[in-house]
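Notes to self after the call with IL:
- keep both proteins in one doc
- input above output, always
- annotate only the second one for now

Protein 1:
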Amino acid sequence: MRKLVKYLGICDGNMEEGSLRCDANVSVRLRGAKKFGQKTEVKNMNSFRNVQRALKSEIERQIGLVELGEPVIHQTMLFDANKGVTRAMRSKEEAHDYRYFPEPDLLPVTITPKYLEEVRKEIPELQHARRDRFINEYKIPFYDAGVLTAEKIVADFFEDAVQNLTIKSNEGIKAVSNYIMGDVMRLMSERKENIVQIRLKPWHLSELIDLIQDKTISNKIAKDIFSDLLGSEESPKQIVEKRGLIQVTDVETLRITIREVVTKNPDNLTKYKAGKTALFGFFVGQVMKATEGKANPQAVND
């Protein structure tokens, strides 16, 4: 007669790196019985497939013992992936199921409300409280606030960058958030470094966002020079001026470039005039290419 089965699994590991470690407690009982039998612990399984195989093997092993009238011993089991079976590693007969008992030689500790309040005042702002403050104070989405406050040094970096913004607009603050969650965290992941170790100064990020906001540079140019800011003593403004990357906003200068682009593409111009308006984006792209990304996109569109 088959038995009912109970098992509890505890998994741990780094799924980003593809590593997994899982322990599972397994016990069986006769149908109709109120209590499960003695449990065993299957240790250190390293894949979902092996978890499935190990559970099946240990369940069948315990069912076999119960049906033969033999006891299930409280012990730690290992799973042999090559043979597909569990085997005993060590006994837990004296472990008392990891229960803990009072130590008679330890004196009781009394915590007073006054002491708790003193400790509470010394505790730094906790993650959830800081997340909620970011949402209310900086008007960023819940998702952004959760990501930015997951690590204290990232939250500190964000606040430093926001405080150093010259133009403290909602768009500027959101741009700081977007850069940290995008380019900055991508670098952290690639290099396996924290936000301090990648050597980006928060005030450099602030100045980069300011240059975008005051239309000195475009988003494309900002992306192009972002990696040059890592560990640099030069500010974003100095890099932009040194390389002649200041955004072109002069209408007459842009009109000259636009006329050249239109003249060089008569076929597309004819198609555009015939109603293929999607080619508008083609012409804008050609102007941006001709100006090496320096043209102000909005000015070109206008």
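Protein 2 (the one to annotate):
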Amino acid sequence: MAQDNFVIINARVTFKNIPMHKLAHFAFKDVNVARESFMKIKDVSECVIIQTASRVEAYIVMNRPKGDIPDGRRIDGKNLVVNKIQETWIANAELEQWDIEHFDQTFEVYTDTDVIEHLLRLVSGLESVVVGKEDILNEIKELSHTARLTKHSGKILNKLFDGTIRIAIN
């Protein structure tokens, strides 16, 4: 069996981590510019951003790194993709100093099957402020469609979003 040469990353800040009124600080000023910024990170090939009143999430596909992955606490680890995602997020949002200082306490990062499980729960309404609320499905459809039109979403994220949306509808 061939090994996948990519990793799917979900970076998010949601109502579960911070109060709703503070979530607006983590929202991207311009979603298109934010997607472009994430795409500039080395080895990132796709990006879809889900931004609603209760969450800001970036779904990112990047090529799997070759060799050992450096420790994020060491000098050679400062260019890790998670650090680059945080830097890009901070540069594209209107965070206050307190938010930046506590960013690592509100910011969640998941990969691969955890991303798929979360997206399934999200499109099904299980991750909403009001469980079962269907508005999120329409927002996800719209935001993933926009990413597709702007060529920020490709084969991998298109398949992921199409599949989860199809499951949620049925």
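Annotation: DSSP finds eight helices and four strands in the chain. The CA atoms of residues 36 and 152 lie 8 Å apart.
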